[in-house]
Amino acid sequence: MRALVVVAHPVDDSFTHAAASTAADALRRAGHHVDVIDLYAIGFRAAMSTEERDAYETDAPVLDPQVAEHVELLRQADTLVFVYPTWWSSMPAILKGWLERTMVPGVAFTFDGTNRVRPGLTHIRRIVGISTYGSKRLYVRAINDNGRRTISRALRLSTGVRARLDWLALYGIDSCSSEERERFLDRVSTRMVALR
Amino acid sequence: MWVISCHPVPDSFTRAACQRAINGLALAGHEVRHTDLDADRFDPAMPAAEWRHHLDGPETKPAIAAYLEHLRWCDTMVFVYPTWWTGQPARMKGFIDRVFVNEVAWDLPPGADRLRPRLGHVRRLVAITTHGSSKFVNALEGEAGKRIITRAIRVLCHPLTRTSWIALYGMDRRTEDERRRFLDRVEHRMSRL
After folding, report:
1. How far off is chain B from A71, nearest CA to CA, in Å?
2. What is the pTM (predicted TM-score) of this model?
3. Contacts of B133 (CB under 8 A, 6+ apart)
């Protein structure tokens, strides 16, 4: 398996980073190849530029060498792992921007002759989402988990719905004890080791 | 009326829609403030310092002070943006991440696990957006952007806050005439808000 782990959190010693390294270590222990993109650590630019928007519908929509590198990793991967805190029911802007700038036409999807969208990520067999939430589970359900929806629905239009989705969520993180946090990291580890 | 717009291309359809929305609001005699996130070169990635001060007051986030002044002032927020990957472009999501802060948009009483809303002065939320794909595909994808505004942001506002969703679906297949009609609709709806 080749896994691409994408992490989005502004603080290095955050719980999100702990979850991401737990996941990456577990995958490596299980003998898989793991690439990690830490969006804040590399100073990833979230906003699409004017030039990129103008190039979006051309044959060469990728202008930034850093994005080109990520596209290459994306093409080699068969597993995508997203690790982020849920803010305002969705993913942090830096991760949303990563989707917008790497998942461009010719990479994530193609337009066929009739202008219909065809999936471009059918080599991705598995997607994992690991996210923390300030709110409790019921509240997240009521507001809707829009980050999860974007990944489970919009992204899976690009991978095909046969790509399996695993979702690991820690709800009500602000009121969690350190034991509960530890247990969550253990769960991340166990699930990643068992990933087939 | 606080209009917040986002699109990287100066002569884009989104910019045109934003201008027509402002025209409509002005026509109705409203006082309008406009924030163009791209002209401001707004940085969507919340800096580490702002995250660390997540539970502190707005004085810890000087970079967004001007936006907070608008947020305290307005009774209506109008979001104008293209829908990308089912939601707001990263630049606008970053605006939401960074500007809806403690002691202005919400607070967290000791021991509570749910935010207490503080935008009771906001009574109307408007979204004006374009979608490349059809309404059907968007429904299938779950309309994340719509739910971020009509649910996640709305719960911070007045309990009777009304939301208006003005959307052009299947943008890539629309004729010039249909686009023009949409712009007319935007101005008309805004003039009658």
Report:
1. 17
2. 0.96
3. A117, B141, B169, B170, B172
Contact between B68 and B103 under an 8 Å Cβ cutoff? The reply is no
Q: What is the pLDDT of residue A196?
A: 85
Domain range for B117 is: 2-191
**Phi, psi for residue B94 in degrees, rounded to 5:** -65, -35
- CATH number of the domain that A30 lies in? 3.40.50.360
Measured CA to CA, the distance from residue A24 to residue A26 in angstroms comes to: 5
Domain count, chain A: 1
Within the 54-83 window of chain B, which residues sit less than 8 Å (CB to CB) from chain A? none
B15 in contact with A, Cβ within 8 Å: no
ipTM for this model: 0.96
**B114 contacts A139? CB cut-off 8 A:** yes
Residue B151 to residue A143, Cβ atoms within 8 A: yes
B contacts of A47 (beta carbons < 8 Å): 8, 38, 42-44, 89-91, 94
Q: What is the pLDDT of residues B15-49, one digit of tens each?
A: 999 999 999 999 999 999 999 999 999 999 999 99
CATH number for position B144:
3.40.50.360
